[in-house]
Amino acid sequence: MTETTAGPAQEPAASDRAAAPRRTGALVLIAAVITVVLWASAFIGIRGAGPHFDPGALALLRMAVGTVALTVITLRRGVRLPPRRHWLLVAVWGVGWFCVYNLALNAAEHTLDAGTAAMVVNLAPLMVVVFSGLFLREGFPKPLLIGAPIAFAGVVLIGLNSSTKSGALDIAGLLLALLAAVMYAGCTLLQKHLLSAGADATTLTWLGAAVGTVALLPWTGSLVGALQTAPLDATLWVVYLGVFPTAIAFTTWAYVLQRSTAGQTSATTYVVPAIAILLSWLILGEVPTPLMFVGGALCLLGVLVTRLRRRAAPISPAAPADPATEPDTTR
């Protein structure tokens, strides 16, 4: 009787264990898609609001709205503070990611078109691939080493073709975009370190956003003035940036980063420029050139390559059990 009842009782447990990684993988994929689509839309939102808000005012309003939204998300999920020994790192990460990165990107997009800004900022995933392999011991998987440069080549193609429509490139804008790339890479590595040390992804994102908002308070006067003169649609763009590309997208980004390597997660964002040119076409009327479409295809191809995995070796069928040595389970 014991032998008869034990088998069926174990089968659901085994199937549940097999299904759990598939469910997690599906959720990670969904979170990654949400992140890249919303981050792509951020380039459009910044372009829409940028003429009416200076970089500091835009960043402050975006982060204030984002912090409020993240507070709601975090309270619903439960606040789990990181250990005190990590508080300084959390503060450094929050200032770098949510203050300096935003200021640099906003200022860069005042003089650069969305494609060029995306091209320079997307040096960051290549930096993450190299430094995560060196310092986070993630190694250098072949799919990542092959796919990331392919995707970046697509970004370059998009950037060069979009920049030709806007005249000569502004050196200050390029340097600011490069600063944004450095902040992106450094903060991704630091965030991965904090998550690997046991920090809760949602709480960490909320704390970082709050710290970034405090660091941006010197631009309060500029924001008050901008709100008095900016048209309603520009202000709504900033509110959109705070709720969607900030609160939601950074939460889904942390979810993916916690369950994947820093190199692979950052390489996934190479899809962003491809989506950005489509959104620029649909929303801003910036018609992409054929070579920009080729660049977008390269971005997608490169990201697909980075997600490839080595096929596991086939498992040989187990040999039939020897009745003489099989334990007696009826007792």
Q: How is this fold's topology laid out?
A:
Layout: H1 2-49, H2 55-77, H3 87-111, H4 114-121, H5 124-135, H6 142-163, H7 171-196, H8 201-215, H9 220-229, H10 232-258, H11 262-268, H12 271-284, H13 290-306
Helix pairs in contact: 1-10, 1-12, 2-3, 2-8, 2-9, 2-10, 3-7, 3-8, 4-6, 4-7, 4-12, 5-7, 5-11, 6-12, 6-13, 8-10, 12-13
Give a short overview.
It contains 13 helices and no strands. It has 331 residues and is mainly alpha-helical.
Structural description of this entry:
- By secondary structure, the protein is an all-alpha fold.
- It has one domain (33-306).
- It has helices at residues 2-49, 55-77, 87-111, 114-121, 124-135, 142-163, 171-196, 201-215, 220-229, 232-258, 262-268, 271-284, 290-306.
- α2 (55-77) crosses α3 (87-111) and α5 (124-135) packs parallel to α7.
- The protein is globular, with a radius of gyration of 23 Å.
- How much strand? under 5%
Rg of Cα set: 23 Å
Major beta sheet summary: none
Output the number of helix runs.
13
Helix content: over 70%
Ends: how far apart?
Answer: 10 Å
* Order of helical and strand elements: HHHHHHHHHHHHH
Q: Provide the number of structural domains.
A: 1
Mean pLDDT: 83
Looking at the structure, what is the overall shape?
globular
Low-pLDDT segments, ≥5 res:
1-12, 311-331
Give the structural class.
Answer: mainly alpha
Number of E-state strands: 0
Domain EamA: 29-159, 172-306
Family: Belongs to the EamA transporter family.
Transmembrane segments: 26-46, 58-75, 87-105, 117-136, 143-160, 172-191, 203-228, 234-255, 267-284, 290-308
Protein name: Putative inner membrane transporter yiJE
